[in-house]
Model the fold of this input.
Amino acid sequence: MNERTQVTDATPVKALPDAQTVTEVQHYSDRLFRFRVTRPKSLRFRSGEFVMIGLLKDDGRPLLRAYSIASPAWDDELEFYSIKVQDGPLTSRLQHLKVGDQIILRPKPVGTLVHDALVPGKRLWFFSTGTGIAPFASLIREPQTYEDYDQIILTHTCRDVAELTYGRELVDSLKTDELMQELLGDAINKLVYYPTTTREQSPKMGRITTLLDDGTLFRELGIDGMSAETDRAMVCGSMGLNTDLKRILEGFGLREGANSDPAEYVVEKAFVG
Ligand code: A2P
Done:
C-alpha cells in the first residue's frame, strides 16, 4: 500500500462537512469488498437509491462516484459493496479503507430502482450481475418489498462462485438475523434466491439472459413466464446486461418506468471501476 493513497485521520477529508467514518470493512476476494460508514442524521433515502461517495485527491479536490446504498433505509449506518480495480482512480484507493478512516458522502440520494417507480404488481424480479446486487441488498432488507409483493426473485450472476459470497451470506442472514426476523417474520419465505456463475462450475451455470431466453429460469422456478399484469422487474448490472434485459422484459410486454412515470420495470447501471 502506498502511504500517499492511504486514507487516514490525517487526510483533510475530516475538514469537510460531508465526511463519514468507516465502521466496518470486509473483503470477499481480490475483486470485491464491502464497507459500512456512519450515516448523517439528516440523510433520508429510499431503499435502492444511490449517493455520490469518494475521497480527496492529492490536489485536495474530491473524487466522487455514484454508489448504490446497499443497506436499507431503516439502518443506522450506510453499507456499500464495491469492486476493486487496481488502476481505477477511486477503487484503487477505496479498497485500502480501514475502520476509523473517513470518506466523503454527498447526502443527495437519487435513483430509479425504487418502489415508487413501479406500478403495483404481484411478483418482483431483481436481476443483477457483479456489484449490481447492491441496490437489491438494500431492497431485500426493506419491509415494503414484502408488503407489496407475493413473491420476490433475486437473480445474481457472477463470473465465479466466490463472487456470489456477499449475496449468499446476506440472503442466509435474513433467515437467522434476529432484527430481520422481527421485521420480516415469515414474509422472508417470499424471497427466492437464484445465483448463477458463468466462468466457474456451480449448481446453476449461465448468463441470466440466456436462462430467460431458453426458458430454463421459468422451468426451474415453476413459473409460466412474465406478464405486464403480474410481473415487475428491477435490473442492475453492466451496460450489456441492461440492454439485453430491456429487450427481454419488453418482449413480455413490460414498459420501462421512472420516478415521474411509474411502469413495470426499471434499470440502472452498476458502478464499475
Ligand atoms: P460472462 O462471464 O459471460 O461475461 P463482470 O464481472 O464482467 O462485471 O460480469 C459479471 C457477470 O455478468 C458475468 O457472469 C458475466 O458473464 C455477466 N454478463 C456480462 N455481460 C452480460 C450480458 N450482456 N448479459 C448477461 N450477463 C452478462
About this structure: The two ends are 19 Å apart (CA to CA).
